Amino acid sequence: MTENEAKPTLWDELTSPLNITLMVIILYLLYKIIKSHTEKDEPLPPPPPPMPKIKKDMTAAELKEYDGTNKEGRVLLALNGIIFDVTRGKRFYGPGGPYAAFAGKDATRGLATGQVAASDIEYDDVSDLSPDEVASAKEWEEQFREKYDIVGKLLKPGETPTKYDDDDGNENENENENKKEL
Predict the structure, then answer these.
(1) Fewer CB within 10 Å, N- or C-terminus of the chain?
(2) Which residues of the chain fall below pLDDT 50?
């Protein structure tokens, strides 16, 4: 080193453009970290209370009322003759959802065949499904039984509804027989 070349001083090192940029970035990140720890998170509003469970057999016409567009917002669909309350999955089955075509309807054929299309059939007799499609519908039914509450049965034309006697949904078809046994 020659005498004219001086060693860089600490000040020279600190004031280099690269080091100034790095220090600004580090100070900004430290500020964000400290700020995030000192700010108190605002509590989330409590979730809305769950809707009361319903236990009722319905015709296809009655089921149409539960497509998520009514005042209550409840979404029901039928699968293999069983009506499920899928309101918890409203983002899928409610208005605007990918499976909204099934809301308030018998979804057996659509889920079994993989065709998500609206159907205006009052009561769909799915006896013409292939064995693979029937198996697919059964798999969907198993998944729905695990995730959603069962409301009741989808009534065939002319079929009478079952009377449910308590909150657990126990059937009470012959109340008189029960009274006679006592």
Answers:
(1) C
(2) 169, 172-182
**Which CATH number goes with the domain that contains 98?**
3.10.120.10
**Contact between residue 112 and residue 133 where contact means Cβ atoms under 8 Å apart:** yes
- Rg of the chain in Å (alpha carbons): 31
What's the domain range around 146?
60-166
Q: Is residue 49 part of a domain?
A: no
Angle, CA 109 vertex, CA 61 and CA 73 arms, to 5°: 45
How far is residue 1's CA from residue 7's CA, in Å, rounded to a whole number? Answer: 9
Query: Could you read off the pLDDT of 83-94 as tens digits, one per residue?
Result: 999 998 889 999
| Alpha carbon separation from 17 to 10, 20, 23 (Å, rounded) | 14, 5, 10
Tokens representing 46 are 């409590």
Exposure string of 71-110, with b = 16+ CB inside 10 Å and e = fewer, is eeebbbbbbbebbbbbbebbeebbeebebbbbbbbbbbbb
Q: Is residue 87 part of a domain?
A: yes
In a domain, 145, yes or no: yes
> Does this model's pTM top 0.70?
no
Position 121, amino acid: I
